[in-house]
Amino acid sequence: MSPQAPGAVLLIRPRHFTPNPQTADDNVFQVAGHPAAAGTAALSSAAYEEVTRVAAALEAEGIRVHLFDDDDPTRPDSVFPNNWLSTHAGGRIAIHPMYAENRRAERRWDVIESLKRSYRVQDVIDSSGLEPDGVFLEGTGAMVLDHASRIAYVARSRRADPIALERFCTAFGYEPMVFDAVDPTGVPIYHTNVMMCVATEFALIGLDLIASPQRRVEVAERLGQYGRAVIDLTYEQVCAFAGNAIELRSPTGRVLAISSRGLASLRPEQREAIEASCRILPLDVPTIELAGGSVRCMIVGVHLDARPSTLDLPPAAVGVAEVRPQAFSVTTSRSTAR
């Protein structure tokens, strides 16, 4: 078993999906002004069906899927729960501070309670109280975590504050490895997980986007220090979301969940390097990609131990669980950032 590849995931299926105007200013991967990006019922329906198909494809692989519906029209980006929620070995859950005001309502206590019923959860560490101080760390969007080597790779941005990162790494036992990453026009990469993916035996990364040549070498060396293959992505492949992938564990081996668009952008030798250690599972999510994220952004990996009552059930009994939303009502105190 690899600590990098969870065997269960959490998805949010939205009924009111649309590219979020509050995130468009720093997310260059988000489609603006495109007719298909307008907030229409047809667009929402297409996104809803894409998540449904993703859940079914993952479940068909034997991966346990926790599927939650979201009926709230004020949450256009709720399909990307990895930004506000992450789970960790040892029974720990992290709730993260979000940059866009309209995304903060995505936090849902019913999701946390559902995880508690299915898994052993010891602690829920809520950092959302940092938001009033303008301090943000958008989960496994802002951080790409190497769970085996305990390294948090982070591209600097307004969504990855160093204070919040230090607190997270101290609390969860990671070493931060921070770098500046920009697109060819000099705009910072808004989320680290659009440019890199760390799997058990390989990593996908747009190395040329790292601004400092020295830091570029350091990151590549850390990624490859235990024999992990480092697969360098071009900016065009990053724009196709080839780096926005996640390795998962199925009963028959590890699989790489990646969008069909991202997979199509890979060269044959890159695919061969991936397939040396896991199977590739392409997922078609073109509507959701209009919002500037892809497969990795949609998936919360569940790195928690299942409760004994669910361990021996057949996959059909513990697979897709559809849950209606409730208000997020955890009590937090406002943290002083500085």
TrEMBL record:
| Keyword Transferase annotated | yes
The record ties this protein, via Pfam families, to: DDAH_eukar
Task: Tell me the keywords, alphabetical order.
Answer: Transferase
Q: Name one GO molecular function term.
A: transferase activity
UniProt protein name: Amidinotransferase
Native organism is Intrasporangium chromatireducens Q5-1
